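Quarterly update, task 2.4: flavin-adenine dinucleotide-bound model.
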Amino acid sequence: MQSAAQVDLIKELSLAVGAAHVLVDDDLRAAYEVDWTGRYQGPCNAVVRPNSVEEVAAVIRICALYDVTLVPQAGNTGLVGGSVPRPARPGARSAIVMSLTRLTRLGRVDTAAMQVTAEAGVTLTTWRESAHNAGLDTPVDFAARDTATIGGAIATNAGGSRVLRFGTMRRQVVGIEAVTAKGAIVGSLDGLPKETAGLHWPSLLAGSEGTLAVITAARLRLVPWFQHTATALVAVKSIESGIRLLAALRQSVTSLDAVEVIAPAAMRLVSDHIGQPPPVSSPEAALYVMVDCADHSDPSEQLLDVLSQADGIVDSAITTDAVQRKRLVAFRDRITEAIAAASTEVGVPTFKLDVAVPLDALGDLIKAAQGAADADGCRLVPFGHLAEGNLHLNHIGASHPERLANTVLSAVASLGGTISAEHGIGVAKVPWMSLIRNPAELDAQAAIRAALDPADMLNPGVLHPQVT
Ligand SMILES: Cc1cc2nc3c(=O)[nH]c(=O)nc-3n(C[C@H](O)[C@H](O)[C@H](O)COP(=O)(O)OP(=O)(O)OC[C@H]3O[C@@H](n4cnc5c(N)ncnc54)[C@H](O)[C@@H]3O)c2cc1C
């Protein structure tokens, strides 16, 4: 039964965006109340689907007036619980989910500036298609590309496979438009590559995970479209051989696009999931390294040169053929999906830790993570982005996730690493922020949030402990 205030709130929201875009029925809200992993969920009063920056601002003002919290959500592919409401607690304010998926307008590609303006709900795939239509490409790519959005990728400062060449999402944002918790529209979409005029909104909002403002559009950098790609899958004897291979590739292969890492446990899982044997294998394989090179002409010569001289390689496959490449890349792209299927089988959502350490500490991290998984009795499935020392540690059937997180994240911090490389802090890692940020840094971050959102309305509990 709704209170009178809740009825009024829904009425006002319906006036702002149209009744058809305020979802209140249980079955319509359900998909917005649980995250991709199935680990994080919480109830909301309604899901509101604005269609313009003005409607976003109106919804925010209404939420402020009724003292409800607001959870920005887009593709809902986030893996740290930030895109869905917090679990219900006695005395806690109720939540509204704001879905940004109707903001899908894309501007004309400016080929001279190599930029395009996209609304927040445009998916990475649509962004890429628009770039390709203009003979250009996008600098960010990862497996959730068909659903993950521009707004979500900026809010989480997403990474993916091309970070080695082009940097994370933060580097791609040359302009931004957003609405603060006070309902103010801020930023600019002019896309000036040079401007030194005080506060830089893209820098402030990239990685803010929906806690400082709702992003409604962005002016994005594009990159040349290298239509010739060579992909190699290489089995190496040890993590050290993998890192030496990375160094040789960086030194000599100018077309290097991605260097990814797949542990044997991940290779076995994805191979079973897609029903195909691993394209390379050897009893001696300690790790698999997947390398992408992309250029305006066939880049395989440079790549083959490096592979033929590298030590520690026990098997390898290389292709430039589009169909075969797709098959090879599936062994990287479909790991997360394979993990989700395995977790459905065991009946417990996978416990995921996305971490990064300096490259020379990667071996120690893998040892520490395996030790923690063995002690828990769960199955560890690591894979990730080798060039950034970034591992996704997936624990299938974990019995004590908190204990695992304590052990692994403490090890990461003591190795000079970070508790979140690209997925964000969300609600999942808030308790461990003090491992990598000192009290002064946490105070400063809280002060910035309080200045923009004094009522703690936007995504409370994400990045910071929840106050009310
Ligand atoms: C199969 C798979 C593979 C993945 N691979 C990678 C990878 O390689 N690299 C990587 O970085 N991530 C990866 N992810 C994680 C995820 O896709 C990214 O975090 C992505 O950026 C989330 O985008 P989204 O649109 O789904 O955002 P959501 O999941 O809806 O939201 C994520 C966070 O951003 C906030 N947010 C969303 N939209 C806005 C907005 N417009 N304004 C303000 N805040 C907003 C939300 O409140 C939430 O805190 C993967 C996920 C899956 C399922």
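Highlight for this quarter: The mean pLDDT is 96.
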